[in-house]
Amino acid sequence: MSLTEESLARAALRSRNLMLGAALTLIFAGAALISFLWVPYDITQLDIANKIKGPSGAHPLGTDHFGRDILSMIMVGARTSIAVALVAVGIGMGLGVPLGLAAAAKTGSLLDEVIMRGNDLVFAFPSLLIAIMITAVFGASALNAIIAIGIFNIPVFARLVRGAALSLWTRDYVLAARVSGKGAARISVEHILPNVTNLLIVQGTIQFSLGILAEAGLSYVGLGAQPPLPSWGRMLADSQTMISFAPHMALFPGLAILLTVLGLNLMGDGLRDLLDPRLRRGAR
Amino acid sequence: MSFLKLGAASALAMLVAGGALAKTDIVVAMQLEPPHLDPTSAAAGAIDSVLYSNVFEGLTRFGPDGSVNPGLAKSWDISDDGLTYTFHLNEGVTFHDGTAMDAEDVKFSLDRARAEDSANAQKALFSAIADVEVVDPATVKVMLSEPNGNFLFNMAWGDAVIVAPESIENIKQMPVGTGAFKFTNWVQGDNITLEKNGDYWGTPAKLDEVTFKFISDPTAAFAAVMAEDVDVFTGFPAPENLPQFEADPRFQVIVGNTEGETILSINNKMPPLDNVKVRKAIAHAIDRQAIIDGAMFGLGTPIGTHFAPHNPDYVDLTGNSAYDPEMSKALLAEAGFPDGFKTTLKLPPPSYARRGGEIIAAQLRAVGIETEITNLEWAQWLEQVFRGKDYGLTIVSHTEPFDIGIYARPDYYFQYDNKAFQDLIAELNKTTDPAMRTDMLHKAQTIISEDYVNGYLFQLATATVAKAGVTGLWKDAPTQATDLTAVYWAE
After folding, report:
1. Which residues of chain B have pLDDT under 50?
2. Per its record, what are the GO molecular function terms (chain B) (predicted)?
3. Which pLDDT score is estimated for B429?
4. What is the distance between the alpha carbons of residues B87 and A284, in angstroms, rounded to a whole number?
């Protein structure tokens, strides 16, 4: 790489999108991490006498219909969202990347056809509908939500990797590697994979934000994380009949979803500007 | 002359006033849509909510206060041994298809309901009947195999309404009854319309047209009432919204009692819940008031047994299961679970169950009992919990009136099997003396309370939200019904 690490860091700092996105993401990731050690109130303890109170000194974001502290709920809820989205992206990358590499290595073969048509099949279904179907059939839980969202990440990564790898396979250094007797698998891992990492990071960030949205959507309809595990989507669902007299109950979890997804998207955009070779200017 | 003038003037005044409040149609919304329209072959309360008393009538009928009043039978004689009931029917009653309603139809309806292959959901109501005999078109004799103190009450149920052999075939789509309204149309998934029965035998209805609309989502229910798309919402699903309606002069909020004992049902056959100490520990771990405040926003009366507090025979046994987490922990330790245990909590859709479930889970967790919450739709709940008995704990409201008898059925979903209790209920059913019945009912309530069969939470309240001018709606819900026969628009 001709771009030095120092100049990369400088470019990163210059990108306002990237910085703003990273800051938002860090806030929520930080909140989730802090919640393991400390939360303002124990959210497993209900305090019915203090239900539906607006923001105050004691409860900066107010309390919900069971008297739980909404700030604490959002912090612990961030854990659920991030865990579900992260594992779902992990499933997508873990299965999608090898499939994409294999398809590219044996392009035109039966294997390629099977993998790519399989991907088309998964792609053909509206993802959230299938996720609802999976959770409805196998029971609503955070684990099933992870699996449902993860499955739809597989073809995204498989296509991305295959597309990028196909052009890489025509490069001279790949030819050199073949001449020196390396097998297709080894070339894929040693030469192709490192050159698609940038793409994976950018796509991973985008998929991560979609995962958070999907988790919130599934929880909203009651198919995600089950109580007492808090989830932003369910907080929204719980508050909807109370929105006319307790808007804070819907506002804060809604903002949490909005800002996290916005942050991840900005970060994804910023990373693409920074890492995508086609968009890189004057660095070569 | 002047007398006549006055009369004419007042008639005119009434006409004018009548013109101003000429509204004779009403849109009544409720949450659940009936699966079909035959009240005599399904347990679904939604059928009675639309049709009871409006379209179908029985020999006797429930009044707004739960009293049993004459219906199609204007009077009856009971033989001294309590075994023969002679019903004298109202004359000149016709079904909506024009056919006459006479003793033959009564015999047909009762025989159909108690037949071997009957699909009636409440066959027990008819189990005492030995024979039904037509004396003449206006008189029917019902012979019982043993005295039954509840017989007239049983005949008032929606499952015991009188139907006609001529129209029974299509009753599920095209119900034909004798009521003050006749069925006109059903747009499945949206609404059912009724119109006034011009040939009604009794006091005619004041409304000309009734539309029942089905809105299951609480948020949509709130919006529909606020936008005045519906005139009445019976069983309004979101108690948190009631203060807003109360504060709004456009609406009136009517809060009444129901027959719904809301309980934490316990699977009495599933270890460790088969241990009475464990069940007692659960009962003492529950803070009823927190559930009423948190899940129902204060609507509901705490109960300590499976009986409605507004019933004169109710005994307050809430003291048997007072909120006492320390005692609960001690009981668990005594039962051999010092560190608690894990069980399932399966919740049907209503908010008393979903919200109440979260609160109970937190209360049980506080004494060491971990519950795994699963939210179920009604169909799944009926399948898994009610029929499959695959659950540890669940929350449900038992809305049938006077249903303590379910504890005498060992195959009922909470699987309580107590010979002494079963004998007591059998004895109760044979007893007609009011004082003895009261005594036995007190005993029955005490047995199930002291056996901690279920966690008794609260008596469900019902809230009706209506436009300000709507008059004549039932306040309480002694049975599943939306009786509109006396409803009208007042200014």
Report:
1. 1-9, 11-19
2. peptide transmembrane transporter activity
3. 86
4. 102
- Reported in sequence order, the residue ranges of B292-392 that DSSP labels E, i.e. its strands, are 301-302, 342-347, 370-375
- Residue A4 has what pLDDT? 67
Chain B residues whose CB is inside 8 A of the A67 CB are 294
Q: Residues for chain A: how many in total?
A: 284
Cα distance between residue B57 and residue B62, in whole Å? 10
Residue B4 is predicted with a pLDDT of 47
Best A45, A48, A223 residue to mutate vs chain B (most B CBs within 10 Å): A48
* Sequence spans of domains, chain B: 35-169, 181-257+462-489, 259-460
CA dist., res. B414 & res. B386, Å (int): 8
- What is the model's pLDDT at position B17? 47
**Ranges of H-type helices in A15-168:** 16-37, 70-105, 110-124, 127-138, 142-168
Q: Tell me whether 0.90 is exceeded by the ipTM.
A: no
Of A228, A241, A242, the CB nearest to B358: A228
What pLDDT is stored for residue A280 in this prediction? 54
Q: What is the pLDDT of residue A257?
A: 95
Cβ neighbors of B251 (< 8 A, separation 6 or more) are B225, B245, B465, B466, B467, B468
Region A215-233: mean pLDDT is 88
Other CB atoms within 10 A of residue B203 CB:
9
Burial profile B151-184: b = 16 or more Cβ within 10 angstroms, e = fewer: bbbbbbbbbbbbbbeebbeebeeebbbbbbbbbe
CATH code at B181-257+462-489: 3.40.190.10
For residues A128 and A212, the model is more confident at: A212
User: Strand, coil or helix: what is B261?
Assistant: strand
User: Which of these, B236, B253, B232, lies nearest to B484 by C-alpha position?
Assistant: B232
Question: Measured between CB atoms, does A245 come within 8 Å of chain B?
Answer: yes
Q: What is the pTM of this model?
A: 0.82
CA distance A221 to chain B (A): 11
Question: Helix or strand or coil: residue A61?
Answer: coil
In single-letter form, the type of residue at position B372 comes to E
CATH of B35-169, one of 3.90.76.10, 3.20.20.70, 3.30.420.40, 3.40.50.2000: 3.90.76.10
Bridge partners, A275 (sequence order):
none
Task: State how far the Cα of B182 lies from the Cα of B176, in Å rounded to an integer.
Answer: 7
Structure confidence by residue, pLDDT tens digits, B53-111: 999 999 999 999 888 999 999 999 999 988 999 999 999 999 999 999 999 999 999 99
Cα separation, B319 vs B284, in Å, equals 10
Pick the CATH number of B259-460 from 3.10.105.10, 1.10.3720.10, 3.90.180.10, 3.40.50.300: 3.10.105.10
Residue type, B8: A
Beta partners for residue B301, in sequence order: B459
Segment among A73-87, A137-151, A261-275 with least mean pLDDT? A137-151
pLDDT for the residue numbered A248: 93
Question: Is the Cβ of A45 closer than 8 Å to some Cβ of chain B?
Answer: yes
Window 266-305 of B: residues touching A by CB (8 A cutoff) are 290, 293-294
- Average pLDDT score over residue span A258-263: 95
Give the separation between CA A259 and CA B129, rounded to whole angstroms: 69
Cα–Cα distance between B321 and B305 in angstroms, integer? 10
CB contacts of A227 in chain B (<8 Å) are: 357-358, 361, 373
Query: Hunting for tokens 């009044």 — which residue is that?
Result: B63
pLDDT at residue A8 tops 90: no
Q: Specify whether the backbone of B478 is left (phi greater than 0), alpha (psi in -120 to 50) or beta.
A: alpha
